[in-house]
Amino acid sequence: MARAQSRYVCQSCGASVLRWEGQCRTCGEWNSLVETVVRDEPRPRILSGVASAGAAIPVSLAAAGEHGDEARRPVGIGELDRVLGGGLVAGSVVLLGGEPGIGKSTLLLQAAAGIAATGASVLYATGEESTSQVRLRAMRLGLASGAVAESIRVVAETGVGRIVELGRADGLGMLVVDSVQTVASEELDGPPGSVGQVREATQRLMEYAKTEGVPVILVGHVTKDGTLAGPKTLEHLVDVVLNVEGDRTGGLRLLRATKNRYGSTEEVGVFEMGERGLTEVADPARAFLADHDAPAPGSVVAPVLEGSRPILVEVQALVAPTGAPSPRRTASGVDPNRLALLVAVLGRRAGIGLAGHDVYANLAGGLTVSEPGLDLPLALALASSLRDRPVVPGTVAIGEVGLLGELRTVGGLDRRLREASRLGFTRALVPRPRGRAVPAIAGLEVVVVGTLGDAVRAALGDSTTSGGRRP
Ligand code: TYD
Ligand code: MG
After folding, report:
1. Are strands 240-246 and 252-260 parallel, antiparallel or unpaired?
2. Which of 306, 242, 284, 254 is CA-nearest to residue 84?
3. Measured in angstroms, how far is the CA atom of residue 106 from the centroid of ligand 1?
4. CA–CA gap between residue 358 and residue 370 (Å, rounded)
5. pLDDT at 299 over 90
6. Cβ proximity of 143 and 109 under 8 Å
7. 322 and 251 part of one domain
8. 215 and 326: one domain?
């Protein structure tokens, strides 16, 4: 078979050579050569969201929106549609990332069923599993028979050219490629999953999506450090990047958009993995609260905002004395740098010395939160664990901690506190709101705390913490 030529192109200086080398001879950059297809005729231009047949014609901004909203097709799974911004946009390319086993294939099979239920057909290209494995999953989900099952076609194919060819069938409402790291272009020599292959496959599928107007969903694996494996450039190419997060051993899954050209990246979807796939969680605000029989030292509930959605999450801390010269600081679900900073501020500004202690902190339910408002609850959880005293029952706390031990308020305070009150909490520790009154919420005692030291005393309901004394 005559092969299109491939070259190795330096991503740093653009020089191209015939064979792979570890270092670019032109600019000296290491590991910058990526296998790339060299075509005789130029590839059709891709503009995001625009199928440009021929040369593009400038339009005035006033006229640019005239076609109204992009055609969206709701998937029929409320939480997924919410994160997508109302549904799948025709011709868009979505990258769905997540750790292995987190539930990506499950979610996409359920989404395929949702699209099929609207009367369109779906092509599911699987490079990781055989068609019978996909069918087994479909049986588990109760999707293996009936009209919906008829409209979902599964193909075990890894050649991107062949997938695109199959995708030109009439009435296709969605194309799933599971996963982008297993597909390869016939024109490149590199193995599937290599930078050149992943990028080429994505580009071919984008051309397909834009010219056919069919939404394409690519599954992308996430490496240990949490980035999408393969080139980071994939995230720039595609229209939407979604991530499935959660603790694989637990049931809860969070779907988050880290990029969305057609909607906000503010929304999160909350699911629960059960016996029959992913189900939407009825009350997401409550989902991440752990149940305790008795109040536990080291546990503080924080009303955080995930996008526009208030979620109550339990911050847990454990501090234990250690003789090691450099004590452990282990964080999961919270920023380790923030944890280290809070340990320092607690020691210097609130008399809570943790220098001789190992410190562990995490969020219940496998949630990951990166908002400054988590500082105060985390600091209180550390203090509570060190004192081995639970915080006053029914208490929530939210606020940012400064280097001087001063506290700063967070946005969306009313919404957070209303949600806490709705879920039965009766007391909230918050910094003084800037330029406004303390929110008044029925059934919730709002306690304004000025410094970290105040907050610790108010949280533990005592006055024994000042002056750095140890119990
Ligand atoms: P899967 O969708 O295969 O994950 P990914 O594609 O992200 O690698 O889901 C894998 C896990 O989900 C697997 O450990 C089994 C579990 N699971 C359920 O608990 N219930 C179900 O109904 C299904 C289909 C899977
Ligand atoms: Mg999978």
Report:
1. antiparallel
2. 242
3. 6
4. 22
5. yes
6. yes
7. no
8. no
Which ligand has the minimum distance to the alpha carbon of residue 139? 1
Residues 464, 366 within the same domain: yes
Residues 242 and 303 in one domain: no
Instruction: Please write down the long-range contacts of 2-8, taking CB distance under 8 Å and 24 or more positions apart.
Output: 3/186, 3/187, 4/37, 4/38, 4/39, 4/187, 5/37, 5/38, 6/35, 6/36, 6/37, 6/38, 6/187, 6/188, 6/189, 6/190, 6/196, 7/35, 7/36, 7/38, 8/33, 8/34, 8/35, 8/36
Read off the CATH number of the domain in which 404 is found. 3.30.230.10
Q: Is 85 exposed, middle or buried (0-12, 13-18, 19+ CB in 10 A)?
A: buried
Question: Based on the structure, what is the number of domains in the chain?
Answer: 3
CATH code, domain with 176:
3.40.50.300
pTM, 2 dp: 0.83
C-beta atoms surrounding 7 within 10 Å: 16
The reply to whether 13 and 80 lie within a common domain is no
Pocket flag, ligand 1, residue 246 (CB < 6 Å): no
Whether 408 is in the pocket of ligand 1, judged by its Cβ within 6 Å, is no
7 and 116, same structural domain? no
Counting residues of the chain whose pLDDT is more than 70, the rounded percentage is 90
Taking residue 189's Cβ as centre, other Cβ atoms within 10 Å add up to: 13
User: Do 110 and 254 lie in a common domain?
Assistant: yes
**HEC readout, 279-346:** EECCCHHHHCCCCCCCCCCCEEEEEEEECCEEEEEEEEEEEEECCCCCCCEEEECCCHHHHHHHHHHH
436 plus 375 within the same structural domain: yes
Q: Do 458 and 429 meet the contact criterion of CB atoms below 8 Å apart? A: yes
Write out the two tokens for 271. 């699911």
Full domain range(s) for residue 164 = 71-282
Region 124-129 average pLDDT: 95
Ligand nearest to the CA of 97: 1
Q: How far is the CA of 101 from the centre of ligand 2 (A)?
A: 7
Is 42 a residue whose pLDDT tops 90? no
Residue nearest to atom 10 of ligand 1 (CA): 101
Q: Would residue 186 count as lying in a domain?
A: yes
Cis amide bond preceding 145, omega within 30 = no
Per-residue model confidence as pLDDT tens digits over 405-450: 999 999 999 999 999 999 999 999 999 998 888 889 999 999 999 9
Distance CA 218, CA 311 (A): 29
